[in-house]
Amino acid sequence: MPKNKIQIVWFKRDLRITDHRPMFEASINSIPTLPIYIVETDYWKQPFASKRHWSFIHDSLTDLRKDLKNIGQSLIVRSGSVKKIFEELSYRYNIISILSHEETGNQWTYDRDKSLQNWCLLKYISFTEFPSNGIVRRLKNRSEWSKIRNSRMKEKLVSTPIKLIPLIGIEEGIIPSKEDPVLENNYKGIVQKGGRSEVLKIMESFLSYRGKNYTYNISKPGISEQTCTRLSPHLTWGTISSKEILQLLNLKKRDLIEDEIKNWKKNLSSVISRLSWRCHFIQKLESQPAIEYSCMHSFYNGLRENNFNIEYYNAWKNGLTGYPFVDACMRSLNYNGWITFRMRAMLVSFASYDLWLDWRKTGHHLAQTFTDYEPGIHYSQLQMQSGVTGINSLRIYNPVKQSIDHDPKGKFIKKWVPELKKVPDIWIHEPWKMDFYTQQKNNCLIGKDYPKPIVDHSDAVKQAKSKLALVLKKDSYRKVSKIVLNKLGSKRDNKTKKVTNNQLQLI
Questions:
Q1: Are 416 and 325 in contact (CB under 8 A)?
Q2: From CA 259, how far away is CA 224, in angstroms rounded?
Q3: Which of 368, 366, 369, 362 is CA-nearest to residue 388?
Q4: DSSP annotation of 300
Q5: What is the dihedral of CA 368, 372, 377, 380, to 10 degrees?
Q6: pLDDT > 80? residue 491
Q7: φ, ψ of residue 230 in degrees (nearest 5)
Q8: Closest CA to 191 of 217, 227, 242, 230
Q9: What is the distance between the alpha carbons of residues 170 and 280, in angstroms, rounded to a whole number?
Q10: Could you tell me what percent of the chain has a pLDDT over 70?
Q11: For the whole prediction, is pTM greater than 0.85?
Q12: What are the angstrom distances between the C-alpha of 396 and each of 345, 351, 413, 435, 453?
């Protein structure tokens, strides 16, 4: 008996049906469509994955299933390896094609995609992956990227499908709960809500009132939780596309009335710029997947790996370094799954320079903690903030200066480090400088109620710079830097041939 012909739309980091090319292409074909999400059990055992990510994805899959039901075919969910699931489906159906978006992810997902491509070739199944807006696969020359990206972002949104030909007789499958035991690496705290319906609310509130002070508050912990867009996890897991966001921002700019221009224009332009930089950094990983585990500039490999101090690492990841602002930021991040970019950069800087910890290991904790973990941004930024790219100037953050600049009265510190709640404002940034009487008076004995500074910042940074300086003096260092710049630098960098410190501010 002949098997029924079907086409499969495979959802990965693109959990929507709006501006979704694979879904649209499937909707105009006259054969049943099987839209599927696969819970890859081996993926969730990786050191970069966490239940926090799954919680957001769970919400997003719930919305996606509703949207797909409305056009005729529910989302099918299966658990296991991708190849095994497709193999099982091929026994039952005649799979004509598999449609999906390209994914710029970890080496793990990259290898999985290559394996599936080979399987499809053996089975004579067409496997088509469509570009994800601003990321260009098989880019021949980095100087071409900006032009291609901008051209794509100006295109109309891909039409939302109205109707799918359903696949009769297949079970939906259960979306695993947020507490499913197969999902490892637990967290303690909260998770930003996911889903298409949620991201539309977020966009509406940002464009109505929240974004009015976006640029002014962007580096302020606490306040920024409300005035930043909070779109980054939705971009990561694809409940909205970067192109759709860009077009909504431009529409808002176009429709500004005279009274709004002063308050809004700069803020909207700032978000648009950050959307571009977001694509820029993801393109780095697309062009060189090895930056997940290898320094961009090869001379830095081996620099920190053999000097990993587990006590320093545990103190850093648990917010017990003795530096109040560092600890407050880490504790807030651990609980909320989000903190503003400057504070992320400071946490990496402190780990990499003050504690001399390898970015690959600290990166795993941060990957698990960030709800908006985006591999293309994550690894590029870890390397930039650790000084191992060879094309960016060192950016070393003084934790006390950052504390004074961004939390002058210690309000944020006292919220997240309650051991310091009674410490007077004058000592809140450097409580170890209090005399013993003042410590007793304010119920905060340094070394007992709150740790002493784990290192001396000035001394630690001096030592770090000395070690890095030795790398700079090696033969052919500049030659390798130029190669990295030509492959991974921005077009502007390549024109000027300058080593710059362009930073991505997570939106």
A1: no
A2: 24
A3: 362
A4: G
A5: -30
A6: no
A7: 65, 30
A8: 230
A9: 41
A10: 96
A11: yes
A12: 9, 10, 21, 29, 17
Q: What is the pLDDT of residue 198?
A: 98
Please give the C-alpha separations between residue 323 and each of 42, 370, 385, 460, in angstroms, as whole numbers. Answer: 37, 22, 19, 14
The answer to whether residue 315 scores a pLDDT higher than 80 is yes
Name the β-bridge partners of 82.
none
Residue 294: φ, ψ to 5°: -130, 140
**pLDDT attached to residue 140:** 84
Q: What is the pLDDT of residue 504?
A: 38
pLDDT of 124 reads: 96
Q: Residues with Cβ < 8 Å from 291, sequence gap 6 or more?
A: 284, 285, 379, 380, 383, 488
What letter represents residue 255's amino acid?
A: D
Indicate if the pLDDT at residue 189 is higher than 80. yes
The size of the chain, in residues, is: 507
Report residue 37: phi and psi, to 5°: -120, 130
SS (H, E, C) 50-92: CHHHHHHHHHHHHHHHHHHHHCCCCCEEEECCHHHHHHHHHHH
223 band by pLDDT with thresholds 50, 70 and 90: confident
Give the Cα separation of 504 and 274 in Å (integer): 6
- Which residue matches tokens 């990499």? 352
Report the pLDDT value the prediction gives residue 506, as an integer from 0 to 100. 44
Please check whether residue 160 is in contact with residue 17, taking contact to mean a CB–CB distance below 8 angstroms: yes
Helices 359-369 and 51-70: crossing angle, nearest 10°? 50
Q: Across-strand partners of 33? A: 7
Structure tokens that stand for 110 in this block: 């990259």
Q: What is the mean pLDDT of residues 11-21?
A: 97
Lowest mean pLDDT among 142-156, 252-266, 350-364: 252-266
User: DSSP characters for 96-125?
Assistant: EEEEEE-----HHHHHHHHHHHHHHHHHT-
Cα–Cα dist 498/507, whole Å: 26
Q: Give me 212's structure tokens.
A: 């009015």
Contact yes or no for 465/361 (Cβ under 8 A): no
Picking from 279, 250, 268, the residue whose alpha carbon sits closest to that of residue 214 is 268
> Which amino acid, residue 386?
S
Tens digit of each residue's pLDDT (9 = 90 or more) over 335-353:
999 999 999 999 999 999 9
